UniProtKB/TrEMBL annotation:
Function: Involved in the high-affinity zinc uptake transport system.
Domain of life of the native organism: Bacteria
Name of the gene this protein is made from: znuB
Alphabetized UniProt keyword annotations: Cell inner membrane, Cell membrane, Ion transport, Membrane, Transmembrane, Transmembrane helix, Transport, Zinc, Zinc transport
GO terms classed as biological process: response to zinc ion; transmembrane transport; zinc ion transport
Protein name: High-affinity zinc uptake system membrane protein ZnuB
Protein location: Cell inner membrane; Cell membrane
PANTHER family cross-referenced by the UniProt entry: ABC-TRANSPORTER METAL-BINDING PROTEIN (PTHR30477), HIGH-AFFINITY ZINC UPTAKE SYSTEM MEMBRANE PROTEIN ZNUB (PTHR30477:SF23)
Length: 261
């Protein structure tokens, strides 16, 4: 049991510890659709990989990072709200991905593993890669925390204070894309999207400061992964959905108390 669950648990914890603070920015900036947009971009990348006969994971990563850069460019126009823009791009990439897949003679089964993940199939090399990526993202977050927080509160004021708004926004989008693409292969789109939104939404109700919200979000995510994996093992339920349901239950518990003031 321990030998089977240890890599899965450590991989899930690596994703959760980073998804907490990153999810805080997703909630603050009302970018809940971002995970879905990256998921659809991953589908497009996978379809292109099949068509061009290139490495599937690299193609998915390239597609997600490209879409993140395009989104930053579109956001500079300030003509469309972020959530509306994300919805438009999500549907465009989904349509293009489905069209590209329809042109293929056959779809490899591995495509679904990349999109939906299989936490119990994670190996120790995947665990090391996830924790290395998590360390990198956390280091960049700590380094750029104040600028990231400033553009989230008020971009105009941040610009007056000397913050490079466009560069900082691009960094945030690239970090989110990096987190999602790094997790797609192992834990899947369903899990990473839920760990971005629900723990952060719960942490928001418990925290008094932005830093506390990021911390609580990580703790809720860590608990959701641990309890969800335990539920999956004893109840013989799918791992990803079990973690999602556990995260939802933990968020529900935060609704029982009044938001911190």
């Amino acid at each position: 049991m321990i030998e089977l669950l240890a890599p899965a648990l450590l991989a899930g914890l690596a994703v959760a510890v980073v998804a907490g603070p990153m999810g805080a920015f997703v909630v603050w900036r009302r970018m809940a659709f971002f995970g879905d947009t990256m998921a659809n971009s991953a589908l497009l990348g996978a379809a292109l990989a099949l068509a061009l006969q290139v490495n599937l994971y690299l193609a998915v990563s390239a597609a997600c990072l490209t879409v993140a850069v395009v989104l930053v460019g579109l956001q500079r126009q300030r003509q469309i709200a972020d959530d509306t823009l994300l919805g438009i791009v999500a549907h465009i990439t989904l349509a293009l991905g489905v069209i590209a897949l329809s042109l293929q003679d056959s779809v490899q089964v591995d495509l679904f593993a990349y999109l939906f993940g299989d936490l119990l199939a994670v190996g120790w090399s995947d665990v090391l890669a996830l924790w290395a990526g998590a360390a990198l993202i956390l280091a960049l977050l700590v380094w750029q925390w104040r600028p990231l927080l400033s553009i989230t509160v008020n971009e105009d004021l941040a610009r007056v204070e000397g913050v490079a708004v466009t560069r900082t926004r691009l960094l945030l989008m690239l970090l989110l894309a990096l987190l999602i693409t790094g997790a797609i292969r192992t834990v899947g789109v369903l899990l990473i999207t839920s760990l971005l939104v629900m723990p952060a939404a719960g942490g928001r109700r418990l925290a008094r400061t932005p830093e506390q919200m990021a911390l609580f979000a990580s703790l809720i995510g860590l608990a959701a992964v641990t309890l969800g994996l335990t539920l999956s093992w004893y109840a013989d339920t799918p791992v990803g959905p079990s973690i999602v349901v556990t995260a939802a239950l933990l968020f529900g518990l935060t609704l029982l108390r009044r938001p911190a003031s």
